Known about the structure:
Shape: globular
Strand content: under 5%
Helix content: 55-70%
Number of domains: 1
Bound molecules: zinc ion
Oligomer: single chain
Amino acid sequence: MASIESYRLLVFLGIFAVMGLLELWLPARNAPVNKRYRWTGNWLIMVSGALVARVLLPFGLVGVSMWAEANQIGLLHVIELPSWIGIVLCILALDLAIYWQHRLFHQVPLLWRIHHMHHADSHVDTTTGLRFHPIEIALSLVYKGILILLFGAPAVAVVLFEMLLNGFALFNHANIRLAPRWESMVSKVWITQHLHRIHHSQVMAESNANFGFSISIWDRIFGSFKSTASLPDERINLGQQDTPHTQENSHVIKLLTMPFRR
Ligand SMILES: [Zn+2]
Ligand SMILES: [Zn+2]
């Protein structure tokens, strides 16, 4: 398991480095707050979430999957399917589940209180993809754990799904813009940076759209897809009106206590 973890970390850091370099080279927008403050806050929030996850589930979601396998728990241990079909179905089902989790975090006031911290970032760049409150990480971990037990998801599907979810979060939060030709092509299937910036708009009708993290198909099926905002991409008002774009609002203690102060 240790080697899987180090491989995951390597892929994660690799994608982060590529996105970080692209943002430096061709930034889509300028940040209102110095990167130093935002990046420190967002990285520390990610570390806090990782620590909470480690305490809550020391063997991780892969451990849950291995336990389900050892005890023959879950749908895939009842229904006989070729293993690759089982893997693909599990990844798709988990991705759909995360789409609905994200929608619920916007619709249920108590959950929005927690998810609001992600949206309160004054700018959207690849580190925004790390900025989820540890309570959101914990709730999501329990939710995914239950689904893995229910599906009897194989460990390889769990590892691939986690890598894809983290990788896409870094990708679609990146402060870059695809060329218009690429944007229209890529967004047919995937959630692009522009589509996710619409989700980070201060306009409610826009932030209640594009809930997907990887494929844009769930948004298209469930009527939440929005390809344009009321303002052009470079002028969308990002962040939250109740959270001023200041250095203090990037401080990790401010971020951790945000759901309790609103
Ligand atoms: Zn959201
Ligand atoms: Zn986001």
